[in-house]
Design a protein that fits this description.
This protein is of the alpha+beta class. It has helices at residues 14-23, 40-48, 59-75, 110-123, 150-158, 173-186, 204-214, and strands at 2-3, 78-79, 89-95, 129-136, 139-147, 194-200, 217-221, 228-237, 246-255, 261-269, 272-281, 286-290, 294-295, 301-310, 313-314.
Length: 316
């Protein structure tokens, strides 16, 4: 609970005044009576009362003190500061690239942590329209525009999944800018859309562009990790002649760590191992790993990365 004003606390000084008024007793009048024998016992009982006992039956005093304290509390203007947003529009940008599949060390992935934080923001917001944008290796996707139904937003968040390749938040920036400017031009709100970006340590540098341009809040799950990605596998026929069936394959590999990585890249034709190549990549480097020409039998082709070492330390 937060208080807007603290000066009413000074009024609590009136509490001792109320107590003092009950301690002071008016002086009685003298009367002539025939005998005071009947009053002796009552007088002795009054004299034997302790200081605390004198307040036991003063219910009116306690009521007056309670009213005074409630008055002070009302003058302090208390309110509860709830997390979340009230009114307006919000754009949630979710990084769903392959690196968001990493475990945070708490038994959940970075994406699961980001989705939980996004839902907490939605759940604690009142009368707020949400737009949701995801960005991964396939591009940017608009999941919701101006949705206020929390049940629908929850269902949309449950459908969000990571891709297996690298991705960048920059490809969603134009889409976010469209939503952001649409709110400015509509004139329905006195403030522009708030933008919240959920990413990890790899995507954090790109998310800074959102912070600079949209004044966005960037929520980072995890930090940079040692990781390599097998982006894609491509092939081409020798001299463009498909009749001979001889092809050359190339696998795109990226080193997302800040260390030199060495690894084995294997090529499979169906379930059969076709070839294994040794590859070394510098920090942040992307390259094509070419395999020798071979006779393709029409079976599915796939590449696989294994025995990854970062600066001599085997991790995968």
């Amino acid at each position: 609970m937060i208080f807007e004003s603290m000066w009413p606390l000074g009024l609590l000084a009136a509490v001792p005044v109320v107590v003092l008024l009950y301690l002071l007793k008016p002086r009685g009048k003298d009367y002539r009576i025939s005998s005071n024998l009947l009053w002796d016992k009552l007088f002795q009982n009054q004299q034997s009362k302790t200081f605390v006992e004198k307040f036991i039956h003063n219910a009116l005093m306690y009521l007056q003190i309670l009213i005074l304290m409630l008055l002070v509390l009302a003058l302090m203007s208390p309110y509860i500061n709830r997390q979340g947003n009230s009114g307006g529009n919000m754009v949630l940008v979710l990084d769903t690239s392959g690196s968001m599949q990493h475990d945070t060390g708490e038994g959940r992935t970075r994406l699961e942590q980001s989705l939980e934080e996004a839902w907490n923001l939605i759940d604690t917001s009142e009368n707020t329209a949400f737009s949701i944008v995801t960005s991964d290796c396939t591009g940017a996707e608009l999941l919701a525009v101006g949705v206020r139904d929390k049940d629908k937003l929850r269902d949309l968040l449950r459908q969000v999944e990571c891709c297996d390749g690298p991705g960048g938040l920059e490809q969603a920036q134009s889409l976010v800018e469209t939503l952001w400017r649409a709110d400015q031009e509509s004139g329905e709100s006195t403030r522009t859309s708030q933008v919240v970006v959920y990413t990890d340590g790899i995507g954090a540098p790109e998310a800074m562009a959102y912070a600079d341009f949209f004044d966005a809040q960037v929520v980072v799950a995890g930090g940079p990790v040692d990781n390599v990605a097998n982006n894609f596998l491509s092939y081409a026929y020798r001299d463009g002649n498909a009749a001979e069936g001889n092809i050359t394959c190339a696998a795109s590999i990226t080193n997302f760590s800040d260390q030199t990585a060495s690894m084995e890249v294997s090529l499979y034709q169906g379930d059969s191992l076709q070839e294994v190549r040794q590859l070394s990549l510098g920090a942040g480097e992307t390259t094509l790993c070419f395999f020798q020409e071979f006779q393709w039998q029409g079976e599915p082709l796939r590449s696989q990365v294994s025995s990854v070492k970062f600066d001599g330390k085997e991790t995968l």
